[in-house]
Amino acid sequence: MEIIKFRPLLKQALWGGNKIIPFKQLDTEMEQVGESWEISGVKDNESIVANGQYEGMKLNDLVALLKDDLVGKENYERFGNEFPLLIKFIDADKQLSIQVHPDDEQAKASGQRRGKTEMWYIMQSAPEATLLSGLKRKITPEEYKMMVENHTITDALSKYNVGEGDVFYLPAGRIHSIGSGTFLAEIQETSDVTYRIYDFMRKDKDGNYRQLHTEEASECIDFSVENDYRTKYKTRKNEGVELVQCAHFTTSVYDLDEPLLLDYSELDSFVALIALSGECILSTDNTESQLKAGETVLLPATTQTLKVSGKIKFLETFV
Q1: Coiled-coil region(s) at which residues (predicted)?
Q2: How much of the chain exceeds pLDDT 90, in percent?
Q3: Which candidate, 57, 105, 235, 256, has a CA 20 to 30 Å from the CA of 143?
Q4: Feature table: binding site for Zn(2+)
Q5: Taking the model in full, what pTM does it have?
Q6: Which of 6, 120, 17, 12 is CA-nearest to residue 63?
Q7: 114 among known catalytic residues
Q8: Which residues, in sequence order, are bridge partners of residue 225?
């Protein structure tokens, strides 16, 4: 089967910046692009195949057609025709709202298909780029509501100065916010459910305050405290370095300057490759494709081996 590429879904936002269009080398005049959805099975926001024999098909229709061959036997049994991951690039020119996401059980109880666990890989960002992740001190649900009301909730959150290569794992329930100047790749469950905790008293384009979900969020927040929410890992050249392994995805980073053969013969899953910098040629037994910075490709579960030839840094993720 072919290596599959998709048309990016570009999302403009009041907080969006100007990094995504040049990073992806797109021919468009769009401004304030906050997100590029690279691979999405979210209803009404499905990725469209951009190449090969399935060009023009929606991703979930492709899953329904190819089933195990595309996503793997266990994944198809678990997720059916809905592709299980949402992969994005996010460019925050301004601070995003403080948010939290429910877990799968909480989401289903409120009528959603599933919750949202995610991870961030920070790319080349502004020198002053920051983000918020997790509680830095113990607070109660009552204190949380009071701090939202009196605009002091940020005092309870861990703030990080971030740079290229930093990684944050965000299990459902962890309060977080992407700060101004931060450019990142995000991997998450296929879900668009978000509870907005605090929005810095900002108004939307129509002059209205955006809706907050204080009560819903309080039922989802993990109030435990950790010393450091940053994922620690050691970089290595020309081999995979695992960053996150959880029930929803496993993600590694590769930084290559020599050819590498990846063996997926024992893996019962699709594999997505997210190019962070450089370029390469991807070769399987019967197909070949270029991958360059800003692109994301999908390897079907039938892929046995993949040869990567070139100088490139990419994320590899699968379920």
Answers
A1: none
A2: 93
A3: 105
A4: 101, 118, 176
A5: 0.96
A6: 6
A7: no
A8: 135
Residue 296 · residue 50 · CB < 8 Å: no
Question: Residues 9-40: pLDDT tens digits?
Answer: 999 999 999 999 999 999 999 999 999 999 99
Averaged over 109-129, what is the pLDDT?
95
pLDDT per residue over 231-257, tens digit each? 999 999 999 999 999 999 999 999 999
Distance CA 179, CA 166 (A): 14
pLDDT value for 203: 81
Cβ-defined contacts of 105-113 (< 8 Å, 24+): 106/172, 106/219, 106/220, 107/191, 107/193, 110/216, 112/191, 112/193, 113/82, 113/190, 113/191
Q: Which runs of consecutive H residues, i.e. helices, occur in 155-305?
A: 214-218
Q: Do the Cβ atoms of 229 and 173 come closer than 8 Å?
A: no
When computed from its CA atoms, the radius of gyration of the chain, rounded to whole angstroms, is 20
- The helix/strand count (H/E) of the chain reads as 7, 20
- For residue 207, pLDDT beyond 90: no
Q: What is the mean pLDDT of residues 217-243?
A: 97
Q: Measure Cα distances from 114 to 84, 91, 255, 308 in Å.
A: 10, 25, 33, 34
User: 14-17: long-range contacts at Cβ-Cβ below 8 A with a sequence spacing of 24 or more?
Assistant: 14/94, 14/204, 14/205, 15/92, 15/93, 15/94, 15/95, 15/96, 16/91, 16/92, 16/93, 17/91, 17/92, 17/93, 17/183
Phi, psi for 281 (deg, rounded to 5): -110, 130
Instruction: Evaluate whether 95 touches 182 at the Cβ level (below 8 Å).
Output: no
Q: What sign does the CA torsion over 179, 180, 185, 187 have?
A: positive
> What is the C-alpha separation between 2 and 51, in angstroms, rounded?
9
Give the DSSP H or E segment for 144: helix 141-149
Residue position matching structure tokens 């024999």:
53
Q: Which of 113, 196, 210, 230 is labelled catalytic?
A: 196
Mean of the pLDDT values across residues 175-183? 98
CB atoms within 10 A of CB 245: 11
